[in-house]
């Protein structure tokens, strides 16, 4: 496989060695760090399992997937479980775009549109494992010109998953050395923080979802394609996830506007929310480039939480927005993993999960008025980067008061035993497509 000099240099210092862990008998790679472990397969550079701990200290597998890794390439539904689609994620309107005066036609695999680049996108391909240690794994891929219909020039890309104490980090880099081409990536993560073990429900609506800076979203047509209009969610409306941090994800299911909200015949969510730039207000222009750094210690842009087991995830990202999909099209045939479910909860039903995908504006290559072309077109002399990092101490949560988390100095905690007896260790400060901070807590949910 040919790698450009840029990508080869990125990997040169982390080549596979004899002392590094090898895949298990079924081809699964596992990496771990204190408080967290994850498993991966080369198909789609896919995260197969992600284990964190709940408020009682029990390990929970919070992402969807299959026990049988041979089923991933066979699954006719191909939901893109926790993998890297590309080279251009989400939809391309009417399967066409124009670049440098040339009109390109891509595969129609989502009605009249292109989804994730077509049916030979990167989530359908086997990536190479190019670096591996006990706590990190790197996958790489070479995508020749037009191997996926309608994308000029070759692309070399890699994704590195790294675990440190209480941290999950993803770093993506790519180059297009031959010619300019559309390039937009994401980690297509499917969550059910309950791991389908909540005896009261196996649906996602009991979770809470909070987007504190996402007042605006892209209007959709019947095919879930952005129309070009950017709307502002009124407080309390179906698409409002900013006005209440503890509102349930399913609070609007009885609102008439919930029906067909994610396209014709689709009830729920499959849309793109725009984060306000730091220091801006709700009148920020749509083309304003998001200046927030994914490596900053603040600026949480999304919180997903399970009141049932206390697992809570805070997302920070350098991307300008996020796609949220509430799994309406799941039909109850996909099996759960053996790490998930109950005797009565054994498959993924419609509305049983949520996919969260930090990324750039959907179909931005066909909407120059949004000002996203520079971010979504890569070519010679440019490197596409999706990089972030976080170093955190152990977080302890006061479950007696059920208030905000308390971060303790890792070197000098200064906590006395009577206080420690009231506290539960937090579970996961992670990074996904940027980074996610996980913790276990007791929460109060507003319907």
UniProtKB/TrEMBL annotation:
Has keyword Isomerase?
yes
Signal peptide extent: 1-17
The UniProt entry, under SUPFAM superfamilies, shows: Galactose mutarotase-like
Provide the alphabetized UniProt keywords. Answer: Carbohydrate metabolism, Isomerase, Signal
| Domain of life (superkingdom) | Eukaryota
Q: What InterPro entries does the annotation carry?
A: Aldose_1/G6P_1-epimerase (IPR008183), Gal_mutarotase_sf_dom (IPR011013), Galactose_mutarotase-like (IPR047215), GH-type_carb-bd (IPR014718)
Q: Which family does it belong to?
A: Belongs to the aldose epimerase family.
> Under which name does UniProt file this protein?
Aldose 1-epimerase
